[in-house]
Amino acid sequence: MSILDSSFAPGLQAAEPAPGVLESIALLATVALPQIAVRLRDALAPEIRCAALAIFTEECTDRPRKLAGDQRITDLVGIAELDRIRGSHPGENRWSERAEIGGAPRDILALRYPPSNALLVLIEPRPAGGQPELVEYLWNLAANRIREKVADAPPSYLRESRAVSAERVRVTGELVEQYATSLDILLATLRSTQLDDAAARVAAIDLAAKTLVGLKTVDDRTNSIVEEPVASAFTRLRDDLRPLTTLSGVDLQFVEPPKNGRALPGEVAHAARAIVRGLALAMMEQEDIQRIRVQWDCDGENLLINVRDDARGGIDPSAAALDRLVRRVEALNGLIEIEVMGGWGTEVSVRLPLDAPPSDAADIAEWSLGGREFEVLQLLAAGQRNRAISQALGISENTVKFHVRNLFKKMGVGSRAQAVALAHSHGVASST
């Protein structure tokens, strides 16, 4: 792909990019995802400055928000706010407005990346340059980088993603129950006839009722992020593969799963799409291929995938591309069977369990880590120092030190080396 691919920003082809732009493009094309929000904000600065930047992408199941900028804003940016902004302009890929974000009304510039529905929000933007198309181009490049990294996620990421997804559901459920109980008590108290100020009582009841609804909405939204209906997951797969039909001339046939099948954990849905894409690409390399049939099913405990071609059985099961897919399946405690039938084609069957293996999730859950603590641990496990962690998460170095001390206590270790070793033994590594 050219660095000025017309599918990103057609208006840029007529302009010769400055050296600084080329450097920004190179950085975004290779940056590790924990730093992508910081790098994108830096890359955009010559064209548009902002107080803070937020990326919202459900493809990263363990960290759907990626933040950079003023910590007083980023610490308050919530998933519900970002999801509300994304849903406020259906069908639009770029818009400006004043919206509630970071706990207050602020001016924003929002950009959507249609292939994954990822969202970029520039908070309190201040235009600085003369190429608005470059802003869109750099965002699309960053969003595409996220997609590629998720699709190529190593087995360690898949394991830790399942663990943190399970922990998020548990913690959110506990918080919702706690606050719902408190607000129920508040409502009962304020409904008491012993209160004299009726107007204040009515206003407080209304506020508390709205808060309960808001908590329930956040709970539903959190669970929807870590799970994806099997039918919509398959639809996304079909949309992803449709361009291959045009480019290759191979007839891709799809047998849809039951619409009422059990929802898929986010990391299973992402892995399943990546597995099928990899199989389809491997099969299309055969000279005599004409048709590929893709089928998903769900038995309540497993996602069942079947992919078959009509070639003459020219696939090598030991090829590097297939070995990588085998390792991806094994990372999810799944099973893959490849049957090459000489003269008849190749059939691949995959079984992916929908429930996470109990060991990793349970062991990590015993540490009772908060969301930010787990993010710090991931970067520690990747060998990052405090300053790099601070930049990646958009927090101060003192805050990083605070989280590291808490990690040591919760994990029962006395040094960074011990924490890293213990994290690695539990499959924790730097994530997307």
Automatic annotation (TrEMBL):
Pfam hit, one: GerE
PROSITE patterns: HTH_LUXR_1 (PS00622), HTH_LUXR_2 (PS50043)
Superkingdom of origin organism: Bacteria
Signal peptide (from-to): none
Occurrences of domain HTH luxR-type (ranges): 362-427
Key words, A-Z: DNA-binding, Transcription, Transcription regulation
Protein's name according to its UniProt entry: Helix-turn-helix domain-containing protein
